[in-house]
Specification:
The protein is α/β, with parallel strands linked by helices and about 170 residues long. The protein is about 30% helix and about 20% strand.
Length: about 170
Amino acid sequence: MQIVLVRHGIAEDVTAGSTQIDADRRLTKKGRKQMKRVAKGLRRVLGEIDLIATSPYTRAVQTADILYKEFSKEGAPVLEQVDALKSGASGAAVKQWLLTKDSACTLMLVGHEPDLSTLMAYLTSGGGAYAKLGKAGACLIDSYSHDTAKGKLLWLCTPAMFKWLGV
């Protein structure tokens, strides 16, 4: 199984005294533009994927929609909202969800920090090691196995790195 972790793009700030709740924050114009470039770069690097799973929070759903539009040019991945990817959810909850998926598929999980960085460590080393995913950042975990519950971190990219791919 290959797992691509993608942090949502740049989102609106919650201003002091605002009644807006965190789950409703939307991508900014800059965040949408940046995610379109990242999506093109990811498609160029990955080709096809089987499933895009996203946190149900607005900014993550918007990010997943941008990714879906780009990846559906290569085929039609499934798009699914997953409560286990909500901000503050545990790596164990994601691991349980992963057990329901085919071990031969490529999954893209869209979520939040610090949860994705913690999940990256959990899926590659069982915890401990820690690398941070910036906004619109992505990483690829290869050879994730349900049996060992561990995979190999192949790469981690910042949004700026996708410029090198000419997108």
